[in-house]
Design brief:
Blueprint (H helix, E strand, L loop, with lengths): L6 H6 L7 E4 L3 E5 L9 E5 L11 H21 L4 E5 L15 E6 L17 H12 L1
Antiparallel strand pairs: 1-2, 2-3, 3-5, 4-5
The structure holds guanosine-5'-monophosphate and zinc ion.
């Protein structure tokens, strides 16, 4: 499954060059062309799916195995302090390339180039119950 207009499908099909870190039969990991930090890597399924919800079970399993293995490689070989896993789905969440992908972003203590900001304000009991009802009904 490939989309002829998709930049990541072109990487999979070797139609444009990329710096491949790891590859197996269903997944590929390559260096991001605009790295947030040294070693910033993109992991994708070779098949074209737009977002996380579209991925079948067997492919999501191997995809996250690749994420784990490449993250482990980055952590050990680049000797970084840690890493963030980021996965943008749909335009509202900042997805630019419409081929499901996972960012592995190496981090070091005190670096300022990336921060997942979690607000400190608490939701009320009512707000939590309202959203829970929507999700469970
Ligand atoms: P998104 O915002 O969709 O989650 O991120 C897409 C990522 O793909 C960006 O970080 C961008 O730098 C990267 N990217 C876009 N085009 C290319 C490309 O042609 N080659 C590589 N290696 N990365 C790309
Ligand atoms: Zn694609």
């Amino acid at each position: 499954m490939s989309d002829e207009n998709c930049i990541f499908c072109k990487i999979v099909n070797d139609e444009i060059p990329s710096k491949i870190v790891f590859e197996n039969s269903t997944t590929i990991a390559f260096l991001d062309i605009h790295p947030i930090s040294e070693g910033h890597t993109i992991v994708i399924p070779k098949n074209h799916y737009k977002t996380l919800e579209n991925l079948p079970d067997n492919e999501i399993n191997t995809l996250f195995q690749t994420v784990r293995d490449v993250a482990s490689l980055i952590y050990k070989r680049l000797q970084v302090g840690g890493y963030n896993i980021v996965q943008n789905n749909h335009e509202a969440a900042g997805q630019v390339v419409n081929h499901a992908h996972i960012h592995i972003i190496p981090r070091n203590k005190g670096d300022q180039r990336f921060k997942a900001k979690i607000p400190k304000s608490q939701a009320s009991e009512e707000e939590l119950n309202n959203v829970l009802e929507k999700l469970k009904s």
